[in-house]
Amino acid sequence: MNPLLRAAAAVLLIATLVACGTTPPSRYYMLGADARGWPDVDGLTVGVGPISIPDYLKGRGMVLGREEHRLQVSEFDRWAEPLESGITRVMILNLASLLDTRQLSHFPWRSDAIPEYGVRLGVVQLTARTDDAILVASWTILRPRTGEVVEQSLSRHTLPLESDQPELVAEVYSALLLKLSEDVARVIQRDAGAP
Length: 195
Prior knowledge:
The protein is α/β, with parallel strands linked by helices. It has 3 helices and 8 strands. The protein is elongated and about 85 Å long.
């Protein structure tokens, strides 16, 4: 091989290896609590958890539903915390506002601080598609002190999604969790005899 061609091939190979070695930085996103207002009273004691999510959501990469049975996991758009933790945090903040109480805790709670109401949550589906996002969750409200179940239900909420850009996905997921929080809060308020 011509020495000039060898040198050109070596330069091309080195340039290719350098280009392959640089990756774009990861971008991190968080779910947000969308309930308005902050409680100024102690009110009911409510515990949130345990919360479970499907295995396909347990990684840090954002999962987007491209087709009926195909998902795409983003390599660079990532959750800033495990999704179970984010959902728990957002549910606690939303319920604090909706129920007007500062006395919320996450599971497991201390044996000397068992709440009046416990909220168990199982996310069945949380998917962002090209034009909408869907949340399906089974939930149980119980009285942890006695084990009595107040209500068991399955909620399904859908919201439009203008695009599957990660910041919009995080925003719409947060809005879906607010709708779920409202479902739970209505039952607790009704059971507690709140006006």
